[in-house]
Predict the structure.
Amino acid sequence: MNVTFEHVDLSYDDKKTILKDLNFTIPDGKLVSLLGPSGGGKTTTLNLISGLLHVTKGQIFFGSKEVTDQSALERKVGMVFQNYALYPHLSVLDNIAFPLKMQKVNKAKRYQIAKKYAHLVHVEDQLTKKPAALSGGQQQRVAIARALAKQPSLLLLDEPLSNLDARLRIEMRQEIKRIQQETGITTIFVTHDQDEALHISDYVMVLNDGRIQQFTQPQDLYDDPKNLFVAKFIGNPVINVLDAADLQASLQKYLPSNFYQQVKAVGVRAEAILPQPPIDCVGQIQAQIDKIEHFGSSVTANISYHQQRLVSTGIPANYQFGKQLVDLYFAKQGTYFFDNDGKRLEVKTHD
Amino acid sequence: MKKTMSQVLLYVIVSLGAIIMLLPFLWMISTSLKTSTETIKIPPIWIPKVLRWANYVEAFKAAPFMRYFVNSVVVTLVTTLGQIVTSILAAFAFAKLNFHGKNFLFSFFLGTMMIPGEMLLIPNFVTLSKMHLINTYGALILPYLASFFTVFMLKQSFQAVPDSIYFAAKIDGASDWGFLWRILVPMSKSSITAVTVLQMIGSWNAFMWPLIVTNDATARTLPVGLQAFTTDAGTEYQLLMAASTFVIIPMVILYLFLQKYIIAGISKSGLKG
Amino acid sequence: MINQKKNWKTTLQAYLYLLPMLLVLLVFCIYPIVQSFLMSIYTKYDFFTNKVGAIGWDNFRYLFADPDFYIALKNTLIFVFGVVPLTIVLSLIIALMLNKLRWFSSLFRTIYFLPFVTSTVAIAMVWNWIYHSNYGFLNYLLGLVGIQPINWLNDPHYAMWALIIMSVWKGLGFNIILFLVGLNNIDNRYYQAAAIDGANSWQQFLHITVPLLSPTTFLVTVNEIIVSFKVFDQVFALFQNSPGPSKACLTLVYYLYQKFYIENKYTIAAASGVILFLLILVVTLIQLSYSRRHVHY
């Protein structure tokens, strides 16, 4: 089932606008992440999809059917909450069977279905236990099974991994991917962790300030950010951002004059700062290298430029440097130019 | 060494205090099993030669205690049950529903809790007289079928249930009503038990209101019946003590079995209600 | 639901849940509150026909001209000033001790709390017997240390003491529980930090326990004062349907009861109820303003 938003606005008490003019289509059968900082609108968007919240303006479609005014129940969504929201007084089996009980499915049938999903998520040996007796990862699995038991139109997950420790988180994100692929259900996943989003999703929607910043495949977010926010939000180490005012000479040298005047900020990924000029060079600075750190396979150089600290991973560990300024170059792949509003400008170099 | 000494001293003092707390109860039971001449022996005897259980039978004959007992049981059970049900419904609305006038209504009733209950006696007495309910169970039960204090307590524990559970239940297809009884109430079992037990103790021991609205054995509860009995028993202390023991014992048993909940309830409320 | 806009439908639904409570409270709580304030200024009033003849301050004038009312006011204040400090100090000390016990602390807690669950009337009968001037257990104990028998219940000088002792005994357990909860809520790390800083047990008590327990102490005090202001059952049962010898234990609520139930002076009784309310209100307000300055939340 694909999900479409058309001109969706949400505001509380006609005062505070939370979401502004959201338009998107989530394709059928894919795993999509809603990614962004807290307060950016991702959980709100999820709640609008689920029907727990209703739009102030605009329309929502599931497939070709409009569901704008339908409740969560009518939309038949399955949902997994951050704290799992398992019913503490019911056993694992009864938790999974609860939505079927509400649909008045008879006992034998609903336990049969519940067991099938318990098997799918690998908790078939925990059926008689109460949720409190399970580990966080197991509770998460039960919550997913419960959401799937009603054969929902969509599976929605609200920060499902943030209560787990680091190792379990990686295990569970693989599990979510596996379960999604086995069932083929359209799955929407809210997270503030880019690593999570980039690793398991087919598509990522970056939300900030109540607006969609970019909605595309994971690798495109990194390679081809549409604006300064996305460039800064995605990637580790965080992209280096330089004020155009500090780069006048370089910009004039590498960019056509009608173009470089629009540039207000330049973002350079750590791996794009190099000690030798690359073939597609788009910038050049004279800076001081303070330190080169070397952990395992990663080499990080700390650079000072105009009272600003830059980070490069493109400088080899054995690079010789002193107190003097050295020439450093920006590769085209990994260097982005932004205008006054933070919008990415199409690169046009001299040649 | 110094630590052990101070612990020993601590136990001595605490035990002495415990004896003082227990003495009236022991004295009551001891007296209730004495003959009338044994009660006035000096120095007092703690364990009578023969345990006169007959005192209990005699006290029962001297006044309609069985009737009082039945009245107390009926009034306590109906009052408690009614109050818990009305409070669960109201507490759910205050804890999980969104409606016009919610904050006003809540603060308003919170404010009424400042008013001493004694002020309500007179108008309530008149209301019930007009309903011709004086000296009936109705007079004892009706005014206590709701209590904002209980609503307040339950609202606190309902609020502790995360909203996500509510949404999960909704998505799973439960109605508000189904969520309340299938999920919220079972999840809040221990708080509900706590307020139930506290309310039962309160109803059982209530005195002033039953004293005012009953005038004979038809509806009198145990404390009022016991009070009336003192005039008849006069100096027969062994009978009085037997009757007192009879009034006290049920709540002591309840307390011993459910003290975990009572203590938890008081810890949360911090008010006598 | 969350942030679901409230509309007439959600409101209607919510009020259906509130309805049973609202009905009972309207009839037996809100209406009587209004009515008893009104009644206190009705001077000519037939209750059963609800006819009001005149309105004025006569009921209050009556109260302030009635020597019994002054006695009741005085006795209530004596009772409050006797019971509250004793109860607070004793229950705090006992709670501190119970908190230090290594074994059996829950057994002791059970024992100390026992009086709270017992019927005031029934246990007052027992105390009536303990206070008996000739055969009472208390005078026997006092005799052992050479004190002459005291006529606890019939001597106006001692009757109030008898009432206070019994009330403190009965109220201790409840306050001990509250103090124990308060003590448990104090993070042990504060004590560890203080011990490292060189504070001895007394200094720890003074600088950690006392300030961090102050919200509990405040709560216990307010509650105990309000409950003490309303004392009635104990008096009625201990002195067997009388306010004590020479009205030595005539309290405000007992006065209200007499005017209302014995003498059928409903409006006077209502006026005394209003005074009771005002007293409680004043005490609560004073304490609130005090706590704002001195209680560490």
Notes: Chain A has a mean pLDDT of 89.
